[in-house]
Design a protein that fits this description.
mainly alpha, single chain, three-stranded antiparallel sheet
């Protein structure tokens, strides 16, 4: 890889958009890029590795805030960094396990409704009216994501 990659090249190699790269820069997940005389961003090959690392963490359910904290740990004392890493990962794992539990109950409800709908045949749509109260919060909340306390 060359050392002078433009934003489009980074985005293409990582499977993200240019806006994602700019967002990661604003959030401090990427170092500030160099600039050409025409003020175009230029990156080194390490940026590709960093973007892929951030995407991998996101795909495992970590939030941008979690990732910011994790990346900041590289400057911390190793014992402090290790404890903080464990705290962040335990919190996120607990959050994911709660979502899995809720999604499993949603899955069971949908399967039951499908079975009832198949039994009702032409009146299948009316089975939606008989859905029981879920009794818990929705699996997804809009707005700010849960963050580590």
């Amino acid at each position: 890889m060359t050392g002078n990659l433009r934003i489009g090249e980074i985005a293409a190699r990582c499977g993200v958009t240019r806006d994602t790269i700019r967002f990661y820069e604003r959030k401090g997940l990427l170092d500030a890029p160099g600039r050409t005389p025409a003020r175009h961003r230029i990156y080194d090959s390490k940026t590709v590795e960093r973007v892929r690392f951030v995407r991998q963490l996101q795909s495992c359910g970590l939030t941008i805030g979690d990732i910011q904290s994790l990346l900041g740990l590289s400057q911390a004392d190793s014992s402090v960094a290790s404890r903080r890493l464990n705290d962040i990962l335990r919190f996120r794992l607990e959050f994911i396990e709660q979502r899995i539990t809720h999604l499993e109950s949603c899955r069971a409800l949908l399967i039951k409704t499908l079975q009832r709908s198949a039994e009702a045949r032409h009146e299948g749509y009316s089975t939606l009216q008989d859905l029981p109260d879920a009794g818990s919060s929705p699996p997804f909340s809009f707005g700010r994501r849960a963050t580590l306390r």
